[in-house]
Structures are given as structure tokens and as C-alpha cells.
Amino acid sequence: MEITNHTHRNQHATIVQGLVNEQAFAAIRQALSTALPLQDQQLWIDCSHVDRVHLTNSSICSFVSELLQIRKQNVKVVLYGMNATTERLFRLLQLDTLFDKARTLEELQAAAKAQPIAA
Hints:
5 strands; five-stranded mixed beta sheet
């Protein structure tokens, strides 16, 4: 798993790429804490590896629970890179409306650059 921080204008994005397991959330929280408090914070999570994790009821619940806890801290959570199986799983569990989604990291980066500067 690789975590990188990017700031563009008034927006801070913490990008998580690779396999995200339960132990990874401590590192994700640490990376989120490095953003300035006045910036809009976003957490972009690569979900291309989600189908490789043993998604038992408890592990998917833990994953979503961690994301919801992060969202409660006024961090916008965006999931990207979901394959058809992962998208279907989120839809079946009615989780698809809880988080924003994008097809690719490049799509997210382009959208961030296209946003107007907040006054």
C-alpha cells in the first residue's frame, strides 16, 4: 500500500493505492492529519485490489466502518478503480450511495484541477 498527499489550491487529497487492510487505517489517519485544517480534505482510495481481499462479512463491515469514521471527520471519501465485481458487491450491500466514486485516479485528478478557486 502506498499513501501520498497532494494539495491543489484549497483542496488536499490523500491518495491510497494498493491493498488496504484493517491495519492500514492507522497509517491513513496519520496521513490525513498532516493536512492543514482549513483545507477541504478528501481521501481517494484505490479499490482495484478489493476483490483480492477475503471479503467476509466482518472484513467488509470493518472496511466500510473505517471509511464512515473518516467521513465523520469532514473528509470526503472517494473510491476509484472498482471492477465490476466490487461495484456489484457495493450495490448489493447498498453501500454504493455512501461514497463518491470515480473510474480512475486520472479522472479524479483532472476533476480536482478543473475546480474553480473558492472565494
